[in-house]
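Slide 14.
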Amino acid sequence: MTQHIVPASVVIDTKKNRIRIHRPTLRSLNDPKLIQLLVSPTQRAVAIRAVDQELPEEQTHRIVQRRLINDYSYEIYSHLFVTRLCGIAGVPAQYVYKLTGSTWVEGRIAVFPLDSLERLANDG
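Slide 15: predicted structure.
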């Protein structure tokens, strides 16, 4: 059985507390209706996982597909997520950063090692 691994990227704008998930990343997750943003401090990684149903005890974000028609990315705003991510990564919270990783297509999860964190010169 062949496993499909494809490149993925996400931008973290710490000035605006924004997580920008690029459209190809969402497409590689099979255009999910719901996602979870996960952080592992011990593995120093961020993940985006596609989920099929909204459960009250799990933090999920609904993806509004019509917002992706004209936009190259999907934006989620979360002060808490961005603040904690900067703390774990040990980076200042006044810049825009890009995370690169890969999507395991069959598992519907994209993983971004914090070692891939790259500060962008502009707004990203």
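Speaker note: The longest strand covers residues 5-13.
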